[in-house]
Amino acid sequence: MITSERPREIWTRLTVDPLADPLAQRIAGVRWVTPNRVTGLAFLLSVVAAGCFATGWLRVGGALFLVRFFLDCLDGKVARAQLSSSERGAFLDIAADVTGMSLTFAALAWHQSRDGGLPTGVGLGLMAALVVYNWALSHRKRMAERIGWGSGGSAHQWRTSLPGVSSWVRLCRRLNMSAVPWVLEAEIASLGLVPLLVPQLTNLTLVLVLLFYAVADVVNLRRIWTIAEALDTKEAP
Hints:
Strand content: under 5%
Number of domains: 1
Structural class: mainly alpha
Order of helices and strands: HHHHHHHH
Radius of gyration: 19 Å
Number of strands: 0
Number of helices: 8
CATH topology: Four Helix Bundle (Hemerythrin (Met), subunit A)
CATH superfamily: CDP-alcohol phosphotransferase transmembrane (TM) domain
Largest sheet: none
Shape: globular
């Protein structure tokens, strides 16, 4: 059901890794470069991007968010290159990621609700869906670890004979890359690409992202239920 090594996300594998991998090796030897400083810079960009979204500078905010995500991937690569991975660093990374993501989503939804015609309920629903998603993801991973199911997520073992699609799946398997876009791609599109390239579609994108997170929440809750059932069976006297 669960693979031991989770495939990389499509955006990360195709657009970030080719540049971030060699860059991390190059800067890892610089004395003042540390993973935590890279994480801190990524978080600072999240705050600045949120400020740009809140004040209507959508293109600038989108560009900064994409740079922020690049740095968010770079800190872990630097840590591995320096052999300096730590639990505190991992905590700092996830805290900066969740806080920064929440700030940017809230700022963008607030601006669009105030000045862009986005129904207030969409913004509120999106924030609620984000809270549920982050809680469910964390809880699912803890429960899955107890039973030895990895992260408790999808096995990402897609099989199909459809023309074109089967070639894509084989390519993804060779690259150790997920064949289906998921949360990361939704965030990149809604907070990065759309505000930067087609800001007039921001409202539609936020509605679609709300629907996406609602589906993701249901998927996570169902997985938690399945893991809980397996744990109850395993631990029953």
